[in-house]
Every structure is written in structure tokens, then in C-alpha cells.
Amino acid sequence: MAELFEHLAVEDIQSAADVLRPVYDHLNGDDGFVSLEVSPYLAMDTRGTIAEAERLWKDVNRKNLMVKVPATPEGLPAIRHLIGEGISINITLLFSQAVYREVAEAYIAGLEQYVANGGDPSHVASVASFFVSRIDSSVDKQLDEKIARANDPGEKERLSALKGKVAIANAKMAYQDYKRLFVGSRWDKLAAKGANPQRLLWASTGTKNKDYSDVLYVEELIGPNTVNTVPPATLDAFRDHGKTRDSLEEDIDDARHVLEELDRSGISLDAITTELVKDGVKQFADAADKLYGAVAHKRAASLGGSACLDRFVALGREVGVLPGRICCAFRCVGSVAVWSAGWNLMIARCVAWMSSRLTGCPVGMWSARLRALVPVASMVLIASATLSGSVSRTPWKRRRRPCWWTVTGVPLTKLVRQGAGVSTTGV
Question: What is the Cα–Cα distance from 278 to 96, expressed in whole angstroms?
């Protein structure tokens, strides 16, 4: 199912890139980009991320594409390698200032490698996508716990004053890092060759806490060479009552003080951002599971259409095959489509587990071997169902006896969907 989804996604991304190409050309490659992410199952696999990003870059074949790579420890060397090949990268799941500095270093080192190999860096672009509001959601939860336990009114007030301010302070300090990293002799050499600085992108900028301004993460994050992926509702609110100003350069000392006070309170921002990356990877993988499951169900429903079944039954009669066997095989094709999706999801999860825990494990080889079993098992399942010929078009619950691929009378499709977590909703 991943392959089927990717075929559709590549076509959509190509169309979107073509729509935005006039913007890209008019602004000399500064804007007009479309992003496509590597599989979330590869977040902890450096070599797998590199291979998939290279393939997506080649398949989409658009200058205004950015391939999304997460800022995990395994993603950082992949970012440097891909930039070194002249591939534009959108670094996602970025929360920490320290990790941002590593991301910027990977970008600069990658550009240096690309230039050393004779490449033209002027067409290479990158953004470092900082997720903002999620930080406040996590920090505020810990602050509320400490406020509830505090007995001193002064301490309660001090802790309360930090709520809703940490994410903005963290972003402002990251912007100061950006200004420092992209100046000096090292960067000047690249800029002279036409290199573009890696811009900071503010993501997750919708306000989740209703006690805060609905434009908080827009008004407070305005500055040169930045991007804000504003949700539609937040954009409408900002158009209605938002105010523009160079806010990223305001109150830098206050931002530094907020982070110092948070640390003094016994709350580790580094621990929070580390956990947010892990949670983000899991959320992306869970979303991919549901998406691939929906595609599998849609495909199975299309393969199992009654009109198509009737045509196969008529054809079977002409060649002397009993209608019951045709129906059995046809239903089995639908089951196999869902079963194959569950098997592929299981393989992806196993490969992700092996790459994150087993040093030196040849995960690519095992992935290929496991996936090779899918078509073989599918053919065996269909052939066996056809030969058994004991299933009619009667609903499952009305059959006199369950066919061989049911367990205690429960259809295999249902068992597979439950076991693999495959969604049964439409796409």
C-alpha cells in the first residue's frame, strides 16, 4: 500500500509544484516550494532516509521540491549527505535550540561538500521547521502541576508568569543563533558562490490554549528570512485583528530570562523537547498506518465490486469453473489486499525497530526478503481458495460452515484489519 500511496502522492506533488513554479521563478527560487516527506518508519534509519529521499527527489523531478527529513539523531547525518548532493531539504520535528545548531551545521557542511564537488549551491534551499505551540502545551502542563503543589503565593505567581511564554522565548533565542551562524568568513565563502541561508520556519502555530491570543504564535514570530506555516483559521484571525511588527528582535533579554526561570523551576526544556521529537515520530507513524490502511480498504473495495464479480462468474461458466470457486477466489483477492497491507505495515515497523536497536543489522536485506514473501503468500491464498470451491455468495453469518480461511467463523479480512490496525473507513 505504501507503493500505491506514493504513486498518488508523487503525482499530486508534481501538480502542486507546477502550480507554484511561477512563484518560484519570479522570486528566483526564494519561495514557491512544495514538500514531500520520507516515510516516518525511517526516522531512526540514516541509510534508509538517504535512499528514500534520493528516490523521491528523482521521481518528483521538480526544482521547487523540498524533501522532508526529521531532525532525529539519525536524520542529522542524512541531512548533511543529501544537501551535499544538491537536494533541497525541509528539516522537520525541530524543537530544541541545541538540535537547531546541529541542523544548521549539517546544512553548511553539506553545502561546502557540494561546492567542493563542483556543484552550484544557488539552487539548493532548506528550511529548519521549529514546532512552536507544542512546547507551550507540554511546559504549561508541568507548570500547572508545580503551581498546584506550591504553598507560597509568590512562587505560584512566578510560575504562572511563565505560562504561554516559553515557546516564544525558545524561538527567539533560536533566531539569535540563526543570525550568528549565517555570518562570518565561513558563510561568506559559500554566499559568494550563490548559497542561500537556511531559513527558520515556524510550524504548529495555531493557538491550542484558549486563554492565549489566537494570533500569539504569528504576531510574536515576525522577522526577516523566516516562514510561518499558518493554519487557515489562524490566518483568518490575523487578517482580522493581527498586528505586524519586527517582534523576533524584541525583548531578547526577557526571552533569555524566561528560559532561565524555567530551568530554576526544575523543568528541563531539553527533556521536554527530546520527548516531543519521540512523540512526533510516533504520531507521524500512526498517521501513516491509518492512511495506508484506508488506501488498502479502498483498493480492496474496488477489487471486490459486484459488477466485476458477475463478469468473472460469467467467464468462469464459459470455461467450466464453478461459480462458487470464482466467488471464493474473488473475495479472497479483497482479503489479500488488506492482508498484504497489514503485512507490509508489520514489516515497516519491524525494520524501524531493528534499525533503532540493532547496531550493524542489515535491515535493508531483511526488509527485501520479508516483502518478497507477500506476493508468494498471496498467490497461495488465492489458489487454495479457488480450489476449495466451498464458498458461495451467501453472507458470512448464513454459511452452513466456515471456509478454511476463517477462524471460528470470523472472516480473515476482519481478523487482519483488527490485528494490523487497518482502518475500515474510506479514503
Answer: 13
Residue 384 cell numbers, joined? 487454495
Our answer to whether residue 165 is catalytic in this structure is no
Distance in angstroms (rounded) separating the CA atoms of residues 26 and 30: 9
Q: Are 298 and 290 in contact (CB under 8 A)?
A: no
* Mean predicted confidence (pLDDT) in 203-214: 93
- H/E element, 77: helix 75-83
pLDDT digits (tens, 9 = 90+) for 19-37: 999 999 999 999 999 999 9
Beta strand pairing status for 34-37 and 65-70?
Answer: parallel
In sequence order, what are the residues at sequence separation of 6 or more whose Cβ sits closer than 8 angstroms to the Cβ of residue 305? Answer: none
The length of the chain, given as a count of residues: 427
CA distances from 114 to 63, 65, 215 (A): 16, 18, 40
58, 63, 68, 414: which is the annotated catalytic residue? 68
Domains of the chain: 2-276 (3.20.20.70), 278-420 (no CATH)
Q: How are beta strands 226-228 and 89-94 bridged, if at all?
A: unpaired
Q: Return d(Cα 288, Cα 400) in angstroms, integer.
A: 39
Lowest mean pLDDT among 147-161, 181-195, 286-300: 286-300
